[in-house]
């Protein structure tokens, strides 16, 4: 790593830590502020925070690498995600913002589910919290692995040193500033990602001589490279687009809907968020296309297609700018890690410590416990990620499906159908998560192939969760007058 690139990265780290200190002074006096920023996020911050925490390194490494290898047919996942994110803003955001406040100011997803379904047994809270903590600890570990490998591949650092640096900066601003720090840093990181994914494709296109020269270069490699349907089946397109179903059940994304300052800000949040997402997704796809043309024309060595954004940044830009662009990848990784850490610590604090150990705990005590829980989850994730060959990455690709199938149908039904019961919700969570696990690990095949190779596991998981939630609810008793009243309040306030 040269001096100029190092200066750019150092400036980025200082900015993140400075935001953490600002948030510490501004919004960590009670648990609602620490976990949800006091429900006072402006729509712009909430929108970019949701987007940045959602996309992670997938936006700058995974998608460009997939398009580089396969062509435009790899972009169907992006289409599904765009549709899913838009539907999430319409179907979940406004009602969840109101309902979590109506249900005695619920600050976590398990907290909301327990209050929504009047679950005095605490079963929903416990099971939902376990799903969140376990999967997000693994998810966080994978993000740290990505950070370590980024430092190793781009800057020549030892893998473990890169991992520790990534974890250290994220823990520092998350521990100190809580949700507001995470959201503000996500906003800055979202802006960096936006600029990077506009700048890199445009500069590369210009270097190649424009779109005509670029398209000619990629078609020389593969005549069908720019065909949306070349080499894919209808089932393959459906599986790719089904990624969009996952949005309804992702705790680190939908918690942003709970934190925006007013339900009236949701339309502005949606416009900002979807505009950001559309531009960045298009830029990500374009990085893969122009990357193939650039490598084909110049012969620059590329060991891993997922590093095409890194290669373009280091080859075409001044070291100071290259440092900024590489910081965009780090920003994408760190924004997701910090969100996952905070959601996990929120569950440990609100759903375990306060619920089962210290119901009379003061606000300052809960904030302290939240910081300790954040540190604990981070340390476990670091330990899991310390082995560079950790197999944990193989699990993280399925976490999106697990969350989407376990929580998505239940969240949607809880907001749009007053008839769903406590037993129905519990059955839906278990059926969704269980189906995904069976689809992934059961020893059977479909046409000689593993089930997950035939159709994405979120599809059967989402279907089974919905059927279980509706079927069990229909068999049980109706909802209570209190739930009826809360539902009516939500509709009136919305």
UniProtKB/TrEMBL annotation:
<feature type="transmembrane region" description="Helical">
    <location>
        <begin position="6"/>
        <end position="24"/>
    </location>
</feature>
<feature type="transmembrane region" description="Helical">
    <location>
        <begin position="320"/>
        <end position="345"/>
    </location>
</feature>
<keyword id="KW-0997">Cell inner membrane</keyword>
<dbReference type="InterPro" id="IPR001734">
    <property type="entry name" value="Na/solute_symporter"/>
</dbReference>
<dbReference type="GO" id="GO:0015824">
    <property type="term" value="P:proline transport"/>
</dbReference>
<keyword id="KW-0813">Transport</keyword>
<dbReference type="InterPro" id="IPR038377">
    <property type="entry name" value="Na/Glc_symporter_sf"/>
</dbReference>
<feature type="transmembrane region" description="Helical">
    <location>
        <begin position="74"/>
        <end position="92"/>
    </location>
</feature>
<dbReference type="InterPro" id="IPR018212">
    <property type="entry name" value="Na/solute_symporter_CS"/>
</dbReference>
<keyword id="KW-0915">Sodium</keyword>
<dbReference type="GO" id="GO:0015193">
    <property type="term" value="F:L-proline transmembrane transporter activity"/>
</dbReference>
<keyword id="KW-0769">Symport</keyword>
<feature type="transmembrane region" description="Helical">
    <location>
        <begin position="366"/>
        <end position="386"/>
    </location>
</feature>
<protein>
    <recommendedName>
        <fullName>Sodium/proline symporter</fullName>
    </recommendedName>
</protein>
<comment type="function">
    <text>Catalyzes the sodium-dependent uptake of extracellular L-proline.</text>
</comment>
<feature type="transmembrane region" description="Helical">
    <location>
        <begin position="225"/>
        <end position="248"/>
    </location>
</feature>
<dbReference type="GO" id="GO:0005886">
    <property type="term" value="C:plasma membrane"/>
</dbReference>
<keyword id="KW-0812">Transmembrane</keyword>
<keyword id="KW-0029">Amino-acid transport</keyword>
<feature type="transmembrane region" description="Helical">
    <location>
        <begin position="159"/>
        <end position="180"/>
    </location>
</feature>
<feature type="transmembrane region" description="Helical">
    <location>
        <begin position="187"/>
        <end position="205"/>
    </location>
</feature>
<feature type="transmembrane region" description="Helical">
    <location>
        <begin position="276"/>
        <end position="300"/>
    </location>
</feature>
<feature type="transmembrane region" description="Helical">
    <location>
        <begin position="392"/>
        <end position="413"/>
    </location>
</feature>
<dbReference type="InterPro" id="IPR050277">
    <property type="entry name" value="Sodium:Solute_Symporter"/>
</dbReference>
<keyword id="KW-1003">Cell membrane</keyword>
<dbReference type="GO" id="GO:0005298">
    <property type="term" value="F:proline:sodium symporter activity"/>
</dbReference>
<dbReference type="InterPro" id="IPR011851">
    <property type="entry name" value="Na/Pro_symporter"/>
</dbReference>
<feature type="transmembrane region" description="Helical">
    <location>
        <begin position="454"/>
        <end position="472"/>
    </location>
</feature>
<comment type="similarity">
    <text>Belongs to the sodium:solute symporter (SSF) (TC 2.A.21) family.</text>
</comment>
<dbReference type="GO" id="GO:0031402">
    <property type="term" value="F:sodium ion binding"/>
</dbReference>
<keyword id="KW-0406">Ion transport</keyword>
<keyword id="KW-0472">Membrane</keyword>
<feature type="transmembrane region" description="Helical">
    <location>
        <begin position="126"/>
        <end position="147"/>
    </location>
</feature>
<dbReference type="Pfam" id="PF00474">
    <property type="entry name" value="SSF"/>
</dbReference>
<keyword id="KW-1133">Transmembrane helix</keyword>
<feature type="transmembrane region" description="Helical">
    <location>
        <begin position="425"/>
        <end position="442"/>
    </location>
</feature>
<keyword id="KW-0739">Sodium transport</keyword>
